[in-house]
Amino acid sequence: MRIDVVSIFPEYLAPLELSLIGKARQDGILDLRVHDLRAFTTDRHRTVDDTPYGGGAGMVMKPEPWAQALESIAADRPEGSGRPVLIVPSPAGERFTQALAYELAEQEHLAFACGRYEGIDERVIEWSREHFDVRPVSLGDYVLNGGEVAVLAMVEAIGRLLPGVVGNPESLVEESHSDGLLEYPVYTKPSVWREREVPAVLLSGNHGRIAQWRRHEQFRRTAERRPDLLEAFDAGKLPRADRTELQDLGYDVVNGRLRRRPGAEGTPQD
Questions:
Q1: Whole-structure pTM value
Q2: Is 182 annotated as a binding residue?
């Protein structure tokens, strides 16, 4: 996969040289290139921003340096590849999810535009659609100083899904959000630590019971921390043991979906 990142702070992306993503770059699995937006300016002050039309606080990123940078990336796309996907981190974008990470991991070429200040001139986004499939994407319902933090998170989430990046592919299947639920709790040696014991079922050697316990812990944790995920969970083919566990948590299966019983004992409260 080819990834291009444009930023006025290219050094902010240095952590992408570390850990699994850094190794994927060294191994040739991930071709990641970081570009300094100021290199595409034409004035001696390397200006990338100006005051907003209509007034208001802050500055807006100028369109021409962005056009020059993005044209350079589009012209240098891998031979035979389709249109690159341009991801614009923005609190006004679609929510970044594990499902979206899997979708983007199927692409051959991604580009990221790291905005700063009050954002990028909107005409850049409109113009970019001539050369890219544009996806404004948000990490969550909050505002960051720039897109670099979001890019670090998204590149790691996407990159680790590429074949050969994570040593044991099975670990990707068991993670939080891979099946719409949060991950179960994990433990390691010693079996007793500061008077706290590892759940006995994990020491039993009964893999069927362990799998069921982990599944039920996923339900419990998700009900406590992210009940919204349970409302979207496909429960149509759950076995009886799972349905019983969910009923104990205050949920019933209705038309293949989980519905929380109002006032059910032990049910997480809003």
A1: 0.81
A2: no
- Specify the amino acid at residue 74: A
Q: What percentage of the chain has pLDDT greater than the value 70? A: 93
Q: How far apart are the C-alpha atoms of 237 and 147, rounded to whole Å?
A: 40
44-58 burial: b if 16+ Cβ within 10 Å, else e: eeeebbeeeeeeeee
Q: What was the pLDDT predicted at 90?
A: 94
Determine whether the annotation assigns residue 234 to a binding site. no
Q: How do residues 66-105 score in pLDDT, each as one tens digit? A: 999 999 999 998 777 789 999 999 999 999 999 999 999 9
Is there a binding annotation on residue 32? no
The reply, when asked if residue 141 is annotated as ligand binding, is: yes
144 is in an annotated binding site: yes
Would you say 208 is a known binding-site residue? no
Pair 258, 252: CB distance under 8 Å: yes
Confidence of residue 267 (pLDDT cuts 50, 70, 90): very low
What is the side-by-side order of every strand in the sheet holding 2-7?
A: 31-36, 2-7, 109-113, 85-95, 133-138
Vertex 240: Cα angle to 239 and 245 (nearest 5): 105
Strand 49-50 versus strand 60-61 pairing type: antiparallel
Give the chain's largest Cα–Cα span: 70
Say whether 143 counts as a known binding-site residue: yes
